[in-house]
Amino acid sequence: MPNLEEMQAVGQSCSEYTPIHWGPRASKPEPEAISCATCVHWQGEEDMCALDIYEEQLLNLDQT
Ligand code: SF4
Fold first, then answer.
1. Which residues line ligand 1 (CB under 6 A)?
2. Ligand 1 pocket check: which of 4, 7, 57, 58 to mutate, most ligand atoms within 8 Å of Cβ?
């Protein structure tokens, strides 16, 4: 089960991150708001990332 800290760390390093609230009025997302939880690809805790790269991103984080 993903936790919020991991989702934030993954979102901030993920090249596929796309904010849900993308639009004309949206300014650059606050760094702390960047997380898988605010990514269009996130399908919820059950299905997680639609691109299926969450685990991969998480492993990449651990290498640093
Ligand atoms: S939900 Fe998927 S695409 Fe979006 S930031 Fe997380 S790992 Fe990246």
1. 10-11, 14, 16-17, 36, 39, 41-42, 49, 51, 53-54, 57
2. 57
13-32 pLDDT, tens digit per residue, is 999 999 987 566 656 667 77
Number of separate domains in the chain: 1
In the chain, the amino acid numbered 45 is E
Domain range spanning residue 16? Answer: 4-21+28-62
**What are the DSSP calls for 19-64, one per residue?**
BTT-STT--SPPGGG-SGGGBTTB--TTT-BTTS-HHHHHHHHHT-
Give pTM, 2 decimals.
Answer: 0.83
Ligand 1: which atom is nearest the Cα of residue 48? 1
